[in-house]
């Protein structure tokens, strides 16, 4: 209990640093005390890990299930499940903060300003006029009948009016309404709601409002499929929700491919301006710069243009590019789904280089590097990718 008290004091200091008016929210404070004591006691004795705590958003809250997965309903409760049940944490439980906030706190003993602010902003106990309407509807069990009707109609109207643009918000809203439809809490059937949701995506596409995503890549994390903003997607186990996600992503992939073509063009020009920066984009040398490390960026490049740029590099920079490519493709099998998309690019580069290197040139050292170092590496890359 003493450690739990210390944990609460430390967490409270972090939260007060971004909102010094929390003492005015008694319900929030009571729930925060309950949460931290329950989680701290079980975490300190080893019944809970930070991963289990973080995953509460994806099980107890988001799925409407206990910690046992849908595929293992008959399994015996684990130690962590029994520990949670001792504190009354059930399928209907909610938390003062996001479970991910608690997980981050126990992992490091504190929350930074961003984590503290995000945890408070997403707390249902601190809902106000600035809380997104879809989030109020996500916590529908805390709404009155009148509030439920209001937010249900408001979110549906805003969704149809294309007020929501981000993938995470759209997935949340579609999940909520598919779930409501399955429970007959809206007039639309599940299939009707699915059709409406797809039509919204069509409008977003026509208006060029689908976000291509960041240059550094779209996360492949499990949680992008199951949760966002620390809240699990409703209906995510329904086949209709999966069908909608696939539909949305097929449209987003078209948009992203167009963006990747432009980004690849800009990146290729960096090779002549700043070869070192160009290299950092595809290696682990600097994670903040390695935008295309796990993306098939060469798929979108122009082989002939790239070859022209290569032939103009100084010997030291050519060797650095060689080293970067060796590092990128050293373990092809681990990223074969990405690198297979780049195979045709490298085949075309090899053909073009072989032709260019047959012409007389004054680049004696560069020619040696190409023929004896770069070209053998390029052949090895092509063979390894093709052999996957």
Q: Give the amount of beta strand, in percent.
A: under 5%
Secondary-structure element order, N to C: HHHHHHHHHHHEEHHHHHHH
Sheet having the most strands: 2 strands, antiparallel
Binned, the helix content reads: 55-70%
* Sheet with the most strands: spatial strand order: 1-2
pLDDT < 50 runs, ≥5 residues: 58-72
Shape: elongated
Count helical runs. 18
Average of the residue pLDDT scores: 87
Structural class: mainly alpha
Instruction: Evaluate the radius of gyration.
Output: 26 Å
Strand tally is 2
Distance between the termini: 56 Å
Task: Explain how this protein is built.
- The chain has 388 residues and is an all-alpha fold.
- It is built from 18 helices and two strands.
- It has helices spanning 2-16, 26-44, 50-54, 79-86, 99-108, 113-121, 133-138, 145-160, 167-182, 190-206, 223-226, 239-273, 275-280, 303-311, 315-328, 336-339, 343-356, 364-386, and strands at 227-228, 231-232.
- Strands 1-2 form a two-stranded antiparallel sheet.
- A hairpin with a 2-residue loop joins strand 1 (227-228) and strand 2.
- Helix 10 packs parallel to helix 12 (239-273) and helix 17 runs antiparallel to helix 18 (364-386).
- The protein is elongated, with a radius of gyration of 26 Å.
- 32% of the residues are buried.
């Amino acid at each position: 209990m003493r450690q739990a008290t210390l944990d609460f004091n430390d967490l409270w200091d972090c939260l007060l640093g971004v909102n010094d008016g929390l003492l005015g929210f008694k319900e929030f404070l009571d729930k925060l005390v309950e949460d931290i004591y329950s989680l701290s006691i079980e975490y300190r004795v080893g019944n809970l890990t930070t991963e289990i705590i973080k995953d509460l958003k994806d099980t107890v809250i988001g799925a409407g299930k206990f910690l046992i997965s849908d595929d293992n309903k008959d399994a015996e409760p684990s130690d962590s499940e029994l520990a949670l049940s001792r504190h009354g944490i059930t399928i209907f439980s909610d938390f003062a903060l996001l479970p991910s906030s608690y997980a981050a706190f126990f992992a490091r003993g504190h929350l930074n300003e961003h984590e503290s602010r995000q945890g408070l902003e997403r707390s249902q106990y601190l809902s106000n006029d600035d809380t997104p309407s879809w989030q109020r509807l996500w916590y529908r069990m805390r709404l009155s009948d009148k509030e439920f009707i209001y937010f249900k109609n408001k979110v549906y109207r805003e969704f149809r009016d294309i007020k929501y643009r981000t993938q995470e918000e759209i997935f949340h809203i579609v999940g909520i309404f598919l779930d409501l439809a399955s429970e007959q809490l809206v007039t639309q059937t599940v299939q009707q709601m699915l059709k409406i949701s797809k039509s919204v995506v069509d409008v977003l596409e026509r208006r060029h409002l689908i976000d291509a995503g960041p240059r550094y890549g779209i996360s492949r994390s499990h949680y992008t499929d199951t949760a966002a903003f620390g809240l699990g997607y409703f209906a995510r186990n329904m086949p209709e929700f999966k069908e909608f996600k696939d539909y949305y992503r097929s449209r987003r992939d078209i948009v992203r491919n167009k963006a990747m073509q432009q980004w690849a063009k800009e990146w290729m020009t960096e090779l002549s301006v700043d070869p070192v920066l160009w290299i950092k984009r595809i290696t682990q040398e600097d994670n903040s710069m390695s935008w295309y490390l796990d993306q098939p960026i060469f798929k979108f490049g122009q082989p002939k243009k790239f070859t022209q740029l290569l032939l103009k590099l100084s010997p030291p920079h050519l060797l650095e590019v060689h080293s970067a490519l060796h590092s990128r493709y050293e373990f092809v099998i681990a990223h074969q789904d990405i690198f297979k998309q780049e195979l045709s690019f490298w085949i075309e580069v090899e053909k073009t280089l072989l032709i260019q290197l047959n012409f007389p040139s004054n680049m004696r050292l560069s020619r040696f590097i190409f023929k004896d170092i770069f070209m053998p590496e390029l052949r090895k890359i092509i063979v390894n990718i093709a052999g996957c």
